[in-house]
Amino acid sequence: MPPLILNANTLGWWQPAQNQPANGDQALLEAINRVAQPLFLINQNGKMAVSLEGTLTIGDKKPSGSDVLPLIGYAPAMHPKDLGDPQFKKTHNLRYAYVAGAMAHGISSVEMVEAAGRNGMIGFFGAAGLLPDEIEAAIDLLQDRMGSRSFGINLIHSPTDPELEAATVDLYIRRGIKLISASAYLNLTLPLVYYRVNGIHLDNKGNVICPGKIVAKVSRIEVARKFLSPPPEKFLKLLVDQNLISSEQAALAAAVPMADDLTAEADSGGHTDNRPALTLLPTMMALRDEITAKYNYVNPVRIGLAGGIATPDSTAAAFAMGAAFVLTGSINQACVEAGTSDTVRQMLAEAEQADITMAPSADMFELGVKVQVLKRGTMFALRAAKLYELYSRYDSYAEIPASQREILQRDIFRGSFQEEWEQTKKFFAQRDPRQIELAENKPKHMMALVFRSYLGRSSTWANKGDLSRKIDYQIWCGPSMGAFNQWSKDTYLAKRENRKTVTVAMNLMFGAAVHTRLSWLRHQGIALPRSAGKFQPLELSKILELLDEV
After folding, report:
1. Residue range 100-115, pLDDT digits in tens
2. Comparing C-alpha atoms, which of 70, 66, 112, 118 is closest to residue 95?
3. pLDDT at residue number 550
4. Which of 96, 150, 331, 484 has the fewest CB atoms within 10 Å of its CB?
5. Can you point out the beta strands (E) in 52-185?
6. pLDDT for residue 7
7. Mean pLDDT computed over 339-345
8. Cβ–Cβ < 8 Å for 78, 509
């Protein structure tokens, strides 16, 4: 039964090309999903009909012809590749304004980055928590496999290990890595500024060119301001004094922002301030406009959105608010290419939005910084919080009451404190030997390193699928995981073996195009049947068929 026309205005007139319009909810649903073609809604004897072809005439004047019908709604073609900022896609050589964000310890794996890059998107390898030789091994694979396709690598702020951050930047420069995702920064650092301005020059048109491109991920205005502004003069002077850049290059740096692109990170997994996307993105965009005017940038920083991007609705909403691109994280960890275990993938596939919580972070433990993790099926968050409470209260492990020490050694360490310290020493002997000397002269620091060891290994246990430590898994996760599971419930994507990075991404982007068309029609006063307004997950082959790209 064709839906009745309710409260719809006549926009103009429609005349068939070859075929007459189709009737019924199913015809309407199929036409809406053909996003690569324009859609016409027609008043056919008081009933709504739909067509993907014909001649459109806007205005009151009715064309001649007995087959002319009133046009009540129109949605232009909206291919997923048309979503997002065109300059972002051009700069990074992309088809889609879609970023598979970096997840630490190689969870955003070489395979995930490769899958994204081979399908017109971009992925960032999760280098955080890895040593330079481990990162270089990933670089070898990516540079061998990707050719001219775009990819990036993460650079995480390391306030407790600045030498590692500097060594990682040196590696990226030496290996010709031209794109990084800068994450968890509280302040800019000298290595980050060096990456940005290394090789800065003027092209033959007089434009300032920075070979090292940065996509910053931030959730605080004060941090965003630093990335939207030019590199700090104090760091530029240090780089000149160290003969790493010339004074001419330092002068050029005053004309460019620290970042080419900035991701407004809302309520996400891992490091997050739990900001609401609806307020964060507009605020970041307003700040960008303010700083662009102040420095008169030729190319303003593009602002994307992350945190909560997990359904077609949220993806469409991000682009509707003006996001240059969308970035996903938590939902990618549940994909088959993620560098984690099947046990973790299954735990994520069962998560609901309330199954998350905040817990102390391993890398910034002493500062009280927290990360968002999965709560369901693990006691990590409770145990990590207990460790931070004890660290804050006592100046040494020996001061902790004996009853508490017994619980720690039985349930968390599964051994004595001294055994844990010996294992921790082996780690820092490789990473930062100075920490050992400091700890042996300062008991509180020794306690912090041992506690951090548990927090650090908890993510490794999860990634490796160590079932003997399942109760201690640290799984970075935001509420988007629960939203994705609810949307995909009882569908093709409900099964974890079907969750592939590109399949998930294309469902979000294609679904966003569908929802954008639906929104246009609703704003024209069209009362759509409920069945037409719900996009269900599809297999990748079906999406390509609907896009006429089989």
Report:
1. 999 999 999 999 999 9
2. 118
3. 63
4. 150
5. 55-58, 69-75, 98-100, 122-125, 152-156, 179-183
6. 54
7. 97
8. no
Q: Are strands 98-100 and 326-328 parallel, antiparallel or unpaired?
A: parallel
Q: Are 99 and 123 in contact (CB under 8 A)?
A: yes
> What's the average model confidence in pLDDT over 175-190?
96
Reported as a pLDDT band with limits 50, 70 and 90, residue 171 is very high
* Residue in 79, 88, 81 with CA at minimum distance from that of residue 120: 81
| Residue 183 pLDDT > 90 | yes
What is the mean pLDDT of the segment spanning 120-148? 96
How confident is the model at residue 5, as a pLDDT? 56
Beta bridge partners of 58: 12
Q: What is the mean pLDDT of residues 162-169?
A: 94
In 3D, which of 2, 8, 1 has the Cα closest to residue 526? 8
Residue of 344, 241, 261 whose CA lies nearest to 301: 261
**How much is the CA Rg of the chain, to the nearest whole Å?**
27
Token pair 């509280």 is at which residue? 186
Give the whole-angstrom CA distance, residue 550 versus residue 544: 5
408-to-75, 311, 313, 397 alpha-carbon distances in Å: 62, 41, 45, 11
Residue 124 forms beta bridges with which residues?
152
Where are the strands (E) in 307-456, listed by range? 326-328, 356-360, 370-374
Q: What is the pLDDT of residue 549?
A: 83
Q: What confidence score (pLDDT) does residue 73 get?
A: 92
Tokens standing for 242? 């160290």
Burial of 443 (0-12, 13-18, 19+ CB in 10 A): middle
Closest CA to 470 of 407, 361, 348, 379: 379
Q: Which of 421, 472, 475, 473 lies closest to 450 in space, CA to CA?
A: 421
Angle at 184 between CA 179 and CA 189, to 5 degrees: 70
The DSSP 8-state label assigned to residue 527 in this structure reads -
541: tokens are: 């082959």
pTM: 0.94
